[in-house]
């Protein structure tokens, strides 16, 4: 697992979540993911699947493309 990549991805998810004024619990509910899993993603502790990235993007109401563009800028 590329720790730096996971940490950068997590920072982006946290940033987007806070922009939307969502708690981890609210994002988890909207994404159909557990809130503790959201926290682990945001801390870069999980190597997330494309399926779960799609769930997060829908929960955040942003495109997967936007997430990957942000990731590309900081990675």
TrEMBL record:
GO molecular function, one term: DNA-binding transcription factor activity
Protein name: Transcriptional regulator
Keyword terms, alphabetized: DNA-binding, Transcription, Transcription regulation
Native species: Jejuia pallidilutea
Pfam families to which the protein is assigned, alphabetical: HTH_3
Domain HTH cro/C1-type residue range list: 13-67
Family annotation (SMART domains): HTH_XRE
Presence of keyword NADP: no
GO cellular component, one term: cytosol
InterPro entries attached to this UniProt entry: Cro/C1-type_HTH, Lambda_DNA-bd_dom_sf, TransReg_Diox_bact_type
SUPFAM superfamilies: lambda repressor-like DNA-binding domains
């Amino acid at each position: 697992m590329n720790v730096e990549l996971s940490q950068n991805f997590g920072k982006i998810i946290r940033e987007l979540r806070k922009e939307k004024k969502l708690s981890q619990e609210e994002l988890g509910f909207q994404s159909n993911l557990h809130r503790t899993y959201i926290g682990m993603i945001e801390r870069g502790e999980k190597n997330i699947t494309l399926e779960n990235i799609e769930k997060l993007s829908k929960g955040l109401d942003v495109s997967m493309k936007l997430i990957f563009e942000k990731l590309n800028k900081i990675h």
